[in-house]
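Database export, one record per block. Field names are fixed; values are copied verbatim from the stored entry.
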Amino acid sequence: MSKPINVYSIPELRQTLDEALPATFARLKYKQSFQLIDAKLVLGYSMAAIAAGSFLLDKKFKYSQVVGYQKALLVIYGGLSVLYWYFTKYIEKSTVYEGRSPAGEKVSVKTRFEKKEPIYLVDFRLDDKTEVSVGLPATEVFNEAGYLQNELLFQWLERQLKVLSSKKSQ
């Protein structure tokens, strides 16, 4: 059983529900894809490697010997930083789950909360074409003590995926 949370805290609600989605999709036989996370890691580690290289150049050589290299590293680091910002702001933007259904369809899930509203807004996208946006009131999947009711979340998610599939076939 999960630990209790303060159901009046939007950040706690979001974190708990976002963390529960991969396990819930796994129960539905979906296979999670880590492409977005991998791309973000590659960008982050590349920036760290460039910073480490710059540090090592500073430690091992005189400033006048490495000015050109430092400038090049700085430009590359700046470019990667802008690329990382663009990636997180426009490509990844609030995507909490990507995976494939047993039938091979690509599913991506984006979540958010409106300010001061305990309604978990979920956008489902199937094969980058069909979209369904729904709201899940927190009271439907959390009990009075603040425990997440995984079975209720599972049933809700199963219903939404059926709606998404039926919308695709239309």
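Remark 1: The first helix runs from residue 10 to 27.
Remark 2: The longest strand covers residues 106-113.
End of record.
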